[in-house]
Amino acid sequence: MLSDDKPKFYGRRQGRRIRKAKSTLLEAFLPQIKIELADEKILSPAALFGIPVQSVCLEIGFGNGEHLAGQALKHPQTGYIGAEVFKNGVANLLSLITGIKEGSALPSKIKLLPERADNIRVFDDDIRLLFPKLPDACLDKVFVLFPDPWPKKRHAGRRFINPENLREIARILKKGGILRVATDHKIYKGWTLRRLAETPDFRWTATCGNDWKHEPADWVQTKYQRKALREGRRPVFLDFERI
Ligand SMILES: C[S@@+](CC[C@H](N)C(=O)[O-])C[C@H]1O[C@@H](n2cnc3c(N)ncnc32)[C@H](O)[C@@H]1O
């Protein structure tokens, strides 16, 4: 932690200039679905959404938002919290769920696409700031998909899968809940399996290679997954049950 108690974030917060339509989405639509960090208040995740939900999932580092948007469309009775620091990624998610792209006419009131339930909420900052606001055993699934591998040994301390974050994920997952980690990186695969094996809170659910070498049933491909496939790397999908 830094002296002002903000954890240090090593990734990028913003990339290329965000053009008109996506800037408008960030200004005019994000506030409708954004999770604010109110002082001292513990959130009630199931009550965050515009509809009643039966379960709540969290995607950490949703990137361009394809998986989050796809899951939320497939499971309209589940609430999805997405956390992402990268502003361009947040803007892209907003574009996916409203259908507004560069060149689209901007309506006076921006709304979700009609086929979508109001079941996504966004935390546009470092998830480690939201962890303390989430109550124990409040989530059914946590997704960490293609986290930055930080392959150099001297950068290993930056990897998101680490004992501190796993303790928080174990705390907020319900018993029987699932942590899903996907990676295309050999070092990160071994690292993740070792870190998870070290904690008594999780059990790797795989019983054979088929369980982790192939996309899970309701999977939605992500940008980093497509990049890995183009470059000839085979992703793995590791599910761990909270015990
Ligand atoms: C390699 S990208 C993968 C993005 C996406 N999951 C995909 O598969 O395309 C990792 C993402 O995690 C985000 N990220 C890393 N640490 C984070 C944190 N502590 N809180 C929120 N987002 C984080 C980064 O900003 C980055 O966009």
Overall description:
Helix 2 links the parallel strand 1 (55-60) and strand 2. With 243 residues, this protein is an alpha/beta fold. It starts with 19 loop residues before the first helix and ends with a strand. It contains eight helices and seven strands, in the order αβαβαβαβαβαβααβ. Helix 1 packs across helix 3 (87-98). Bound molecules: S-adenosylmethionine. The site of S-adenosylmethionine has 23 residues, from helix 4 and helix 8. S-adenosylmethionine (SAM) binds at residues 11, 60-64, 83-86, 89, 126-128, 145-148, 160, 222-225.
Give the helices and strands, then pairings:
Blueprint: H1 20-33, E1 55-60, H2 66-74, E2 78-83, H3 87-98, E3 120-123, H4 127-130, E4 139-145, H5 163-172, E5 173-183, H6 186-198, E6 202-204, H7 210-213, H8 223-230, E7 236-242
Parallel strand pairs: 1-2, 1-4, 2-3, 4-5
Antiparallel strand pairs: 5-7, 6-7
Helix pairs in contact: 1-3
S-adenosylmethionine binds next to helix 4 and helix 8.
According to CATH, what is the class?
Alpha Beta
Q: Give the fraction of residues assigned to helices.
A: 25-40%
Mind telling me which CATH architecture this is?
3-Layer(aba) Sandwich
Instruction: Using the CA coordinates, give the radius of gyration.
Output: 18 Å
In this entry the ligands are: S-adenosylmethionine
Question: The CATH topology is what?
Answer: Rossmann fold
Order of helices and strands: HEHEHEHEHEHEHHE
Number of structurally distinct domains: 1
